[in-house]
Amino acid sequence: MSFWGKSLLLVCATTIGVPVAIAKETLPSQQEFNNITLPPIYIEQTIKLNKKETLIQALSNTMLPYKMVSQALQPLQKKFNVRGLRPGQEINFRYKEAKDGSIAYIDEIMLYSRDDKKVKSYWDNGKYTAKVDKRLVEKRQIAVTGTIEGSLYSSAEAAGIPVALVTPFANLFAWDIDFTRDIRSGNAFSIVYESIYDENGDFLRSGNILAAKLETRKKTFDAYRMEVKGRPEYYNAKGYNKRRALLRTPLEFGRVSSHFNPNRKHPVLGYKRAHRGTDFAAPTGTPIKAAGDGVIERSNWYGSFGRYVRIKHDSKYKTAYAHLSRFAKGMRKGKRVRQGQVIGYVGTSGRSTGPHLHFEVHKKGKKVNPMKVALPSGKKIPSKIKPKFKQLVASTNNLWKQVSNTLVAQK
After folding, report:
1. Can you give the pLDDT at residue 262?
2. Is the pLDDT score of 4 beyond 50?
3. DSSP-assigned beta bridge partners for residue 215
4. pTM: predicted TM-score of the whole model, two decimal places
5. CB 3.0 to 4.6 Å from 32: which of 28, 81, 117, 326, for a disulfide?
6. Which helix (H) or strand (E) holds 336?
7. What is the pLDDT of residue 229?
8. Looking at 33-37, 121-125, 195-199, 226-230, which range is the least confident one?
């Protein structure tokens, strides 16, 4: 019997109270101790990337030597963009400990990217090898319905919609409605979204919005996600793309403080002066989005408008943004911008009584009401996938109906 077997027998016998005669040969000699081979010691740790910190800095800020980290990351940088990692990214690493307690080598550096890839660099036969594989995740569909009581944001959160999805949900209807006027308590909303879990069944994050619906007093607006030529797009139930030429509201959230009014009494000058735009009251620094794709015609100080941006979208439409606190980086004349891109920030420059955005839409050179002008419809869904899309719409609405019936039954 080996030394370990004898030791186990002695412990068991002593535990149950049976007298045992301990023979000298049952105890290990110094030579036997010296000949015992212990498995190598590996230490594992998990860290998070801090703001303005690179991957090599994050790992070197632990006990890992900078030179060793650099060697381990060298093959990885050829296969994966480590510069694209964001603050909060979790990084797992394991190193082998030498007999004197120092670090013999880094055995593995591993992380899961935001696009669900398993990224690692590992020690293999005396050198480092990098590997990037698709991570196994499970996507579950979650359906939610609710009623607005107060704000859409708080109502959606109360209904169980993840906070990270509330703004994307609202953005799906930014081409259709004015959230400051058209949304009222009692309006209904519905959503189907992805909930993503790892290979162990642990929740990772919320995924894409697959469908959404918003019912106002006058009309129902909806959106359904469909891949067209490998690119995800959102269409309404009639098959028209939700993406239109212009957004009605260039702010995520704001309150209309002054509407388009040819006979408005000016709040500063004190006499009637046409107000040919819409004012959105919002805190200083609130990001302002380009209402559509186009080219910046003007980006400078413009009299009573203060800091001012004007974008030409096509031969028919232009939009203007006034009273900015500052311009976004690179926003100058001739710059091409895309719809939704941040072009500046809310302020109170020029002739202004407080922080707000003055927003104008110019149609064929004439200033028109941004909230009422008829925007051109988006492109229609290709006829080839129309039957599949109709099936998606029907199954999604049946799912919402089931959820609503369940909620009624619980009451």
Report:
1. 53
2. no
3. 188, 220
4. 0.64
5. 28
6. strand 336-337
7. 84
8. 33-37
CA–CA gap between residue 405 and residue 374 (Å, rounded): 37
Interior/surface letters 156-189, b for 16+ CB within 10 angstroms, e for the rest: beebebbeebbeebbbbbbbbbbbbebbeeebeb
Nearest residue to 59 via CA among 32, 77, 41: 77
d(CA 181, CA 183): 6
Cα(94)–Cα(103) distance, integer angstroms: 10
User: In one letter, which amino acid is 64?
Assistant: L
Are 244 and 175 contacting, i.e. CB atoms less than 8 angstroms apart? Answer: yes
Is 321:358 a contact under the CB 8 Å cutoff?
A: yes
The CA dihedral of 118, 122, 128, 131, to the nearest 10 degrees, is -20
What does the pLDDT look like over 233-255, one tens digit per residue? 999 999 999 888 788 788 875 45
DSSP annotation string for 69-133: HHHHHTTGGGTS-GGG--TT-EEEEEEEEPTTSSEEEEEEEEEE-TTSEEEEEEEETTEEEEEEE
Distance set, CA 334 to CA 289, 298, 310, 330, 345 (Å) = 17, 8, 11, 10, 19
CA distance 148 to 212: 14
Least confident of 27-31, 266-270, 291-295, 343-347: 266-270
DSSP element (H, E) containing 56? helix 55-60
The answer to whether residue 290 scores a pLDDT higher than 60 is yes
Distances (CA, A) of 242 to 29, 173, 176, 212, 359: 81, 8, 9, 12, 22
| Domains of the chain: residue spans and CATH | 3-35 (no CATH), 41-134 (3.10.450.350), 138-235 (3.10.450.350), 255-368 (2.70.70.10)
Alpha carbon 283 to its chain centroid, in Å, reads: 23
Q: What is the mean pLDDT of residues 254-279?
A: 52
Terminal CA-to-CA distance of the chain, rounded, Å? 70
